[in-house]
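Hi team,

Filling in the usual template for the complex we talked about on Friday. All components are listed, including any nucleic acid strands or ligand strings, so the model treats them as one assembly.

SUBMITTER: L.P.
PURPOSE: interface mapping
COMPONENTS: two
RESIDUES: 473
SEQUENCES:
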Amino acid sequence: MSVDVDRDRAFLDDVRRLADEVAAVHADDVDRDARFPVEAVEALREQRALSAFVPEALGGGGVSFGAIAAACFELGQRCGASAMVFAMHQIQVACIVRHLEDAPWFQDYLSDLAGEQRLIASATSEVGTGGDMRRSVAAVTRGEDGRAGFEKRAPTVSYGAYADDLLTTLRRAPEADSSDQVLVLACGEQIALEPQGTWDPLGMRGTCSPGYVVRAQFGAEQVLPTPFARICPETMVPVSHILWSHLWLGLATDAFERARAFVRAAAKQKPGTTPPAAQRLSHLMSELSLLRAEVSSGLREFTDATGEAGRERLSTMAAVLRFNNLKIAASEQAPRVCQGALGVCGIVGFKNDTPFSVGRHLRDCMSACLMVANERIHQTNANLLLIAKEV
Amino acid sequence: MNDQIRQVLSDHARLPVDVQTLDDDADLYEAGMTSHASVNVMIALEDALDLEFPDAMLKRSVFASVAAIAEAVTALRTAAIR
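RESULT (copied from the run log):
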């Protein structure tokens, strides 16, 4: 067995343990009070999971992308909000790891991230762009002292108040076109967040994602070298859609497991007969299988795209369509499975305080079709389908 | 061919300026062509010139000027003859 496989396995054992022993224990409380999952994130820090995807040479865990995705799945089964915080942090880490182009400041930053287990949030959405991540209003500005800065109105910044650092999309300069974007990593004291509105949503309540006016002052070297136009298709979009869909699969899988436990309990009460709900459970399993297949094939297509040729392939229209479809399919299928589990469990699934409760799973999953709205993705796909030849 | 390309641009590029005032090398995006308009230009060119741009050619640089479009069309037609 290779070292890499051992390393991935040890990492996943740790994540599984903390998912069971920490994230699961606080999940209902986090959900009820719409509070940040501090216990799970602290446990992830203790396991050095926040730097799991940072290369070993920079002090990180050096685990594979597949292991990161599997970790999202594991956490998703126990606490959707903890899984989403972990997933979003790993998306920012992946953007930096894959696009730092040997820039010394970013190499040093990743070492600090590993040493201090820093948590990164992101401000990619913006008021006035109609939900299009590939356009920005706010721009990097330059002060007379040479320091760079920005002011951005972000309608949601997940766990912004709890993060150490912030990755933000901005126009390259005040005169740049709206699609000429860069990614800026601002750290700690460089950031000022002015809260806008409250946070009392239907689901994913522990992500604590209100809007902010974000202001930051930072050094020019804190702009990632690769243009966002390339980071987007090569990393941010596929990685987001893969990690999110893994945690949605986690939510759906736990809902299915609760339904299965309900059916088994019913079967034990009347030995020798198959409970009526067992048939519904079987239907539900085929729905879950579809979700599993889509999620795992999406991951495989991304991990197969290695090297320069692989990166280029990720920028093709076929690949953009592929990973957009992963997001659409998984975000629609996961709530379907959770609702099916509710149908199997009936009233004990509907109640919030039974071993078969699936309300939190269903509500958390309902956020899936909204985070980057599916209709906005369909709009992109519709335009690509007009011109793409090989899909 | 450049006249055909210019006709398509005049019909579909929605430029704020008259396309006849632009050089063959002038940057169409700088002249105000949006990415949405460039999709319509591409589709209209396929129809007007009776050809299909393969995916590899569907990038910003290929539709950046009259000259760039003409070069791509010539390359496609040469490949078709071979």
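MY TAKE: The mean pLDDT of chain A is 96. The radius of gyration of chain A is 21 Å.

Thanks, L.
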